[in-house]
Amino acid sequence: MTNGVGTINGQTQAVAKRPNVYQSDSIREVRARAEVIPQKTTIEERDNLIRLNQILGQDKPLRDNAPRGYYLNISI
């Protein structure tokens, strides 16, 4: 059957989606390091992340003149 634009077929196969396997070298390197290096969150880091999530959850714009470490103060 045709609709003037193309063929209509009720039993068409689903489009096969290919997983996105492209990654730049830097992304692969970061992920590889993250899997190898043990990640231990300190109490201070956890508290700072909770505070940041609360600030971001207010749906208000962040201050433009905030000093470094005002919103997230952790050592990396």
Mean pLDDT equals 75
Distance between the termini: 63 Å
- Strand fraction: under 5%
Main beta sheet: none
Secondary-structure-derived class: mainly alpha
Encode the helix/strand succession as letters.
HH
Number of helices: 2
Principal-axis shape: extended
Can you describe this structure?
This protein has helices spanning 25-36, 43-56. The chain is extended, with a radius of gyration of 24 Å. It has a domain at 25-56. It contains two helices and no strands. It starts with 24 loop residues before the first helix and ends in a 20-residue tail after the last helix. Helix content is 34%, strand content 0%. With 76 residues, the protein is an all-alpha fold. The mean pLDDT is 75.
Structure characteristics:
76 residues; mainly alpha
SSE topology sketch:
Blueprint: H1 25-36, H2 43-56
Question: In brief, what are we looking at here?
Answer:
34% of the residues lie in helices and 0% in strands. By secondary structure, it is mainly α.
